[in-house]
Write a structure and sequence with these properties.
single chain; alpha+beta; six-stranded antiparallel beta sheet; 6 helices; 6 strands; elongated
Length: about 190
Amino acid sequence: VVYTNEQRSLLESIADQAAGAIVKTRLIQEAERRARQFSTLNEMARKLSSTLEHEPLLQSILDSAVDILNCTAGSLLMVDEATDEMIFRVTVGPVAEELLNKRLPPGAGMVGKAVHTQQPIIVNNIKTAQEWFSETDEQTGFTTTGLLVVPMLVKDKVIGVLEVLNKQDGTPFNNDDQELLQAFAAQAAIA
């Protein structure tokens, strides 16, 4: 079949319009995702200013972070100042109850590294991470594939970390995810 120049031009016009529609749809989806993120952060800020009970607020912050980042699990760990151990204070996910109040040795794993460096950490393939502390997965049966850890800072001192694990859609963690989790971590540190 031989197509005329007019047919080719018409097909190119249709393809251009389809491509434009796809780009617009993606932009709308991204704008809706961002609006949902800001709405969630605003709700957390409102709750922060209206409650004195910090445990339910911390649970709400972690629940929202796990939900908005589309993860399967998350934890908020606090530094025990007496021992430097990390304590699972708030947890979300399939093995949440098993982790609650468990302790990690000082400096253990990615959370220990985030405390030490005071920097966020993204690992999208946990098998390649030398600092990975696999004992928690071994004890619970949970399989971590990727994680994002953000330190919670108060006056330049790390008081804990907020971590989310395994994106549900399998996409890697990125800098946008890190910035968003840092916003949640800042609220958790204030709480």
